[in-house]
Amino acid sequence: MITDKNTAKKEKIIKTAMQLFAVKGSTATSMQEIAELCGISKGSLYLVFKSKEELVHSIYIYCFLMIRDPLLQEEQASHKTPQEKLQKQIEILFNHVYELREFLQRQVQDFAGSGNTDIPEWMRKSSIPVMKWFQAKLEDLYGKEILPYTGDLILLVHGMIGSYIRVIFQPDIPVPTNRMADHLVNLVDIVAAGLLAGKPQPLIPDPIITSWMEDSENSQRKSPLQLIKEMKQQLSQSSTIEPRQLEDIMESLMILEKEILLIDPRRAIVQGMLSNLESCPEISGIFKDLKEACSHTNRTCM
Questions:
Q1: Which residues of the chain have pLDDT under 70?
Q2: Enclosing H/E stretch for 58
Q3: d(Cα 248, Cα 177) in Å, to the nearest integer?
Q4: How far, in Å, CA of 175 to CA of 163, rounded?
């Protein structure tokens, strides 16, 4: 019972804070105002949330779970086709965005006005399972042949959902959420069919998708592109390497980077560039990780 009471109290504080944030914004809302509207003391509020930052974090997690849980429930609907499930899941997403529109609009305004461009760590981590889910959904819908275009379709759907949400934010554009969901799924079907028929080179190659889906909690292995970037930074700060050697190493890194970004990296080129890098002691600490990372990319380099 104690746990239930604490959970109810926490949820009441979150909902109250969301109401105030929707009107004033999170920056202009004080913890004292939240406590007063909840009918508790400021000290009692700090017993539940140690800081305003923790409260804001909890609000976003609350919104995320509020949307995620019914999406997962819809995934278990065995009587529906993959397209029907996806359509319903997108409709659920839009419905929740509509319910939260005043709060979300104000948060977007606050974020844009703050000048802060850093995405919170927890938000980056929560996007990883969403991307993995979307990749599995694409395979379920269109087969393994669509997987090289995962990145392209992620960009497409992400941009389209953002555009539809802007429509939801406009009260004078009465488009039902179920029509939006139908429209989005139909457009994805059309684009996927075109990609599978024409088989163009993907704009976003596999190594990029690998780095996007890198989960630092479950894996310490970095992508080849991240390691190459670290090598460049380390070399630019080195005062011991000869200028000519530095030029050769930088050129090898550039060639390796371009090769890895291809759909099918040429093994001879990758091995040749790695061989050039192996003789440089300034990056020896990163080189071993780079060699291993190349061998673990989806499009195997080694």
A1: 1-4, 111-127, 211-221, 263-264, 296-302
A2: helix 52-75
A3: 56
A4: 13
pLDDT at position 259 is 83
Largest CA distance in the chain: 71
Query: Quick one: pLDDT at residue 13?
Result: 95
CB atoms under 10 Å from CB of 240, counted, come to 8
Q: What is the pLDDT of residue 15?
A: 93
Burial of 115 (0-12, 13-18, 19+ CB in 10 A): exposed
pLDDT of residue 11: 92
Tokens 């804070």 sit at which residue? 17
**Of the candidates 206, 117, 112, which has an alpha carbon nearest to the alpha carbon of residue 154?**
206
Type of residue numbered 208: I
**What pLDDT is attached to residue 17?**
94
The answer to whether 148 touches 206, Cβ cutoff 8 Å, is yes
Q: What is the pLDDT of residue 299?
A: 44
Tally of CA atoms within 13 A in the half-sphere of 163 that contains its CB: 10
In this structure, are residues 31 and 42 in contact, taking their beta carbons and an 8 Å threshold? yes
Place of tokens 């599978």: 196
Q: 298 with 206: CB under 8 angstroms?
A: yes
Give the contacts of 172 (CB within 8 A, at least 6 positions apart): none
Cα dihedral 131→135→137→142 (10° resolution): 150
User: How far, in Å, CA of 281 to CA of 251, rounded?
Assistant: 17
Count Cβ atoms within 10 A of the Cβ of residue 277 and give its class: 0-12 exposed, 13-18 middle, 19 or more buried: buried
pLDDT of residue 301: 46
pLDDT at position 296, please?
Answer: 59
- Binning the chain into helix, strand and coil, the percentages to the nearest 5 are 75, 0, 25
Number of CB atoms found within 10 A of residue 215's CB? 12
Q: Whole-angstrom Cα distance, residue 4 to residue 10?
A: 10
